[in-house]
Amino acid sequence: MVDKTKCIGCGTCVAICPVGAISFDDDGKARIDRTKCIRCGSCEASCPVEAIDLSRREDGKDSNN
Fold it and tell me: CA 2, CA 28: separation in Å to the nearest integer?
């Protein structure tokens, strides 16, 4: 869901998430808690470097698989 190679740790996604599903990992990169995420798309739309893709899971597979 978050491409760690693109994430710049700006915090835009953290600030816009309405349910607090995004935090930073130890490397300062965004991490989405899938148990909290409501898939509203706000984070994906607001990411200035397009590091978030809600159609993909962390394992790289499509979310509908």
Answer: 12
Cβ contact 29:7 at 8 Å: yes
Helix ranges (H only) for the chain are: 12-16, 42-46
Give the pLDDT of the chain (65 residues) as one tens digit per residue.
Answer: 899 999 999 999 999 999 999 999 999 999 999 999 999 999 999 999 999 999 865 555 554 43
For residue 31, the enclosing domain spans 1-56
Are 48 and 6 in contact by the 8 Å Cβ rule? The answer is no
| Structural domains of the chain, count | 1
Task: Give the number of other CB atoms < 10 A from CB of residue 48.
Answer: 10
